[in-house]
Amino acid sequence: MDNIPNTFLTRASDILGDTTSGLSGSNIVKAFSGYAYDFDVEIPHSIYPFDAPNKRSALLDNLKVFEPELQYKIIRELCEHPKLRQPVAEDINNLKIQLIARYSSVFGNVVDTTLNQPLVEEVKSFLSDFPTSETVYLTALTKFNNNVFERNLLDDLRLSLELLLKEVFGNEKSLENQVPSIGQFISSKGGSKHFSNMFRTLVDYYTKYQNAFVKHNDAVVEEEVEFIFEMTSSFMKHLIKMHHKG
């Protein structure tokens, strides 16, 4: 892939220029005039009111004159623009997530520097035997690496752990309903009673923390997301190691 498809650029422009939740015409001009100056690019719409049918069309016309790497940068930054209506509309959050999921590997060039990388890499190697869990875990990692500290990142981590347990235990239970089985599983693999109780209790608190965000749609705290990511990774690492144990 060497470009971002026009269909995606059009959709992004429709969302970012939406009458209700998007940027105002003057904010679009100000933002793109800054990008045009920084990257020495001539944009077709540098004044407001636009010489265009509407602000969505003007935004798209401006976006098209930039190289794909800069289109990626601009869309991502506009999704976080301080003048967007708060809280940010779901469409804008979803746009940012789709942008990162589809194009960050090509145009994003973002590398995480905060997570425990040896732990994450170990879990990634273990999860190759559990592809359904692996897919969701990698999606969560992409979001974290791109600073998408949204509640659905926590949802991804929870789902990845839940899918792993379903495969390990051979059932279709929800994460909450797996908690008693976790203690029994650890004991069956030779774990001490204290470790079994501690592990089970931690997973129980983990599910309650996750449910609190699901029910109340709270804004997540970046430091907490990092902690939950590493806790999830640690759970998964030890569960897989015990699963492969005799």
Short characterization:
With 246 residues, the chain is an all-alpha fold. Helix content is 70%, strand content 0%.
Contiguous helical run count: 11
C-alpha termini separation: 45 Å
Beta strand count: 0
The proportion of residues forming helix, as a percent range, comes to: 55-70%
Round the Cα radius of gyration to an integer and report it.
22 Å
Instruction: Quickly give the structural class.
Output: mainly alpha
Mean pLDDT: 88
Order of secondary-structure elements: HHHHHHHHHHH
Shape, per Cα inertia axes:
elongated
Major sheet characteristics: none
The fraction of residues assigned to DSSP E strands is under 5%
- How many structural domains does the protein architecture include? 2
Low-confidence stretches: none
Folded structure, characterized:
With 246 residues, the chain is mainly α. The protein has two domains: 6-108; 117-244. Helices cover 70% and strands 0% of the residues. It contains eleven helices and no strands. The protein has helices at residues 6-16, 25-39, 55-64, 68-79, 90-108, 117-126, 131-145, 151-169, 175-188, 193-216, 222-244. Helix 8 (151-169) packs across helix 10 and helix 9 (175-188) packs antiparallel against helix 10 (193-216). The protein starts with 5 loop residues before the first helix and ends with a helix.
